[in-house]
Design goal:
Length: 186
Amino acid sequence: MGAGESADDFAAIENSQWYQKFMKQCPSGQLTLHEFKKILGLHDMNPQANMYVEQVFHIFDMNQDGFIDFLEFIAAINLVMRGKIDQKLKWYFKLYDADGNGCIDKKELLSIFTAIQAINGHTNMSAEEFTNMIFQKIDVNNDGELTLEEFINGVEKDKDLMELITKSFDLSNVLKVIQNGRRHSI
């Protein structure tokens, strides 16, 4: 920052740049699920990968109106780029909790991780191994479900698990696609 520029000035400039990029990618200012997939070049996916992308979209669509507007978009960017670890873990939990009942069961975790593998392509373990390892490490009461508290406490206490989950759900590639202005045709 130069002389006379505050952190707020810098943030305003950065938000203005994100706004210009968002509007270039989505002139209507309302990003639909179809446009979201198109911008990211995600088409012809298997059903599980498709479900994961839809789940990410719906979590970013905070008011559940079927669109991601700029404010929702900038909130997602701030979470991904600057969010504190507990904020990110809450977001990951919400993503895993596909049915929204406040708990993650093995089926949900297995399904989401399988979808992530389909999109990212490479991991060091199978979806089943990942799911079993997570539950073995952090399902303290062995009831086959993870509460938000169990999830956050368990992941925060295990450095390797934290790294694995963070890498698995790294959305920086999503931001790079939008930042670079690349648009993939279907």
